[in-house]
Amino acid sequence: MYIVLLLLLGALAGWLAARMVKGHGLGLWGNIGVGIVGALLGGALLGRVGVHLLGPFGQFLTAALGAIILLWVARLFEKR
Fold this sequence. Notes:
With 80 residues, this protein is mainly α. The protein has one domain (2-76). 79% of the residues lie in helices and 0% in strands. Helix 2 (28-48) crosses helix 3. The longest helix has 22 residues, at 55-76. The protein is globular and about 40 Å long. 34% of the residues are buried.
């Protein structure tokens, strides 16, 4: 059951980040991938500054923040 929650939060965080940075979603698997990588990145960055958000909502915020940063950095290297 936890893996389903993880995938759902990852997809939602990835979708939100893609909407904020790119203006559209990345598809189901793209959103899940960006959300999960964003959660790892957000957890690492927030952990470095001593911030730990707990619970499902805190995990969602961490994943969304990390996904936004991930897409923003990827956009810097994107060819136009």
